[in-house]
Inverse folding.
């Protein structure tokens, strides 16, 4: 791609899409070209807010705006592969994929293979990696301030009542959403790797306790790393009546680090340098999505401008999706499972055309 402003189209106008649009507007070298949603009122609202054309058919959008370089795919998770691969195969566009990138490891491998053939790129979204607290703790791990990791712990206690799942047909389905772990807990799953290194084995138990849905709203798990480190994970959306906690802590041989807040945005405990807590915490009270998307678009602009490597590689994204599937595979097997396996969950991301048809755009 020659040097020029990167034109981005946003496909899917849910709540997170507005944050993408605002982040694009804040970054030099990137511009929002158009937005699209099957629901006209949603597309119109973002189009008018950001002063760009809006569409209800992404094919119409792409024909009308051939200058689009990158498509941000922000449709239901179970549609990511279908929508993303069409952007690659038919339209020749780079794609930005919201979490959990793809629902199945095989989908991720397939999409990257297609992109390679076209000379295109995929940019997975893991915005919490950019948080000041997360970057400071990763630095501490890399430079030895915390010593050897002994225990990694995740605890997320959030509230998602039945009315949340009733908002849309894709919510609460294994095919298009996944449960508390895939939707709400995916960033913590990613951080288990990003901070702790590769997980070797997991043993998970899942339950549905607070809503009438087919997916889990509660999971507890133990895990082991390749060395001597161990970990535990607790994620639930069955807490009532509110969100209470989302934390990640690391017990090291030289100290303790704990990250909490709305979205791992507060460095709450950091024994190597307690003064670092205030300096590396951020206020996310006005936006739970934080500041990471803006930094992500800066990295995308840098990639096209001067070839700076995007920080989430294919192997990195694949390893996080494989770890996600390992928790489900363990629950299905009722036993420990190895993470580095070609096996996949029989439930997560399984086909469901009845739901997919609701989010497909008919050919005209």
């Amino acid at each position: 791609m020659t040097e020029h402003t990167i034109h981005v189209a946003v496909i899917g106008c849910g709540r997170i899409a507005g944050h993408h649009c605002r982040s694009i507007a804040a970054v030099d070298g990137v511009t929002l070209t158009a937005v699209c949603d099957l629901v006209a009122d949603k597309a119109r609202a973002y189009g008018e807010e950001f002063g760009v054309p809006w569409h209800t058919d992404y094919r119409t959008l792409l024909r009308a705006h051939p200058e689009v370089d990158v498509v941000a795919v922000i449709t239901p998770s179970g549609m990511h592969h279908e929508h993303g691969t069409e952007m690659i195969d038919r339209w020749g566009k780079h794609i930005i994929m919201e979490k959990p990138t793809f629902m199945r490891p095989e989908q991720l491998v397939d999409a990257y293979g297609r992109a390679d053939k076209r000379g295109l790129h995929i940019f997975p979204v893991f915005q919490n990696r950019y948080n000041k607290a997360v970057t400071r703790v990763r630095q501490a791990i890399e430079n030895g301030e915390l010593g050897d990791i002994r225990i990694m712990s995740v605890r997320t206690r959030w509230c998602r009542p039945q009315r949340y799942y009733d908002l849309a047909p894709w919510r609460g389905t294994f095919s298009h959403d996944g449960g508390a772990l895939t939707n709400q807990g995916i960033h913590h799953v990613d951080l288990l790797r990003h901070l702790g290194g590769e997980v070797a084995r997991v043993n998970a138990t899942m339950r549905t306790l607070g809503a009438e849905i087919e997916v889990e709203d509660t999971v507890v798990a133990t895990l082991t790393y390749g060395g001597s480190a161990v970990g535990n994970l607790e994620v639930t959306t069955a807490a009532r009546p509110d969100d209470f906690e989302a934390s990640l802590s690391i017990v090291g041989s030289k100290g303790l680090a704990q990250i909490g807040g709305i979205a791992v945005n507060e460095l709450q405990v950091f024994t190597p340098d307690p003064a670092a807590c205030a300096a590396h915490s951020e206020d996310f009270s006005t936006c739970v999505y934080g500041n990471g998307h803006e930094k992500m678009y800066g990295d995308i602009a840098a990639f096209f401008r001067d070839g700076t490597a995007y920080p989430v590689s294919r192997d990195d994204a694949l390893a996080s999706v494989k770890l996600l599937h390992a928790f489900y595979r363990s629950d299905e097997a009722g036993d420990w499972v190895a993470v580095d396996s070609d096996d996949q969950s029989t439930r997560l991301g399984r086909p469901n055309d009845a739901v997919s048809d609701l989010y497909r755009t008919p050919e005209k």
Observations:
- The chain has 13 helices and 14 strands.
